[in-house]
Amino acid sequence: MKNPCVYFLTNKNNTVIYIGVTSDLTKRIYQHKSKTYKSFTSKYNCDILVYFEEFQTMDEAIAREKQLKAGNRKRKEELINQENPEWNDLSDGWLFYFD
């Protein structure tokens, strides 16, 4: 998926919601799952993709990321529950091949 995206990750107990932005969602999710970088998501084991939105431009994605990060947890949970009420990992079954 090489479109600008905003995405939400959580951990196995859904206690943390991380919001990120990327131009390559598949590659970025792989990086989170493999803990490529020592970061917030690796520290809190956030590697379950529960929500994402695609955009035409990175500027739109970044603006949406800022808007979502400014919101409260309840609003984030509502977005997830609308699209993914079981909080399933939306990246289950994705194949990760990178050079």
From TrEMBL:
Belongs to the UPF0213 family. It comes from Kordia aestuariivivens. PANTHER family: BSL5627 PROTEIN, UPF0213 PROTEIN YHBQ. It holds the Pfam family GIY-YIG. Residues 2-78 form the GIY-YIG domain. This is GIY-YIG nuclease family protein.
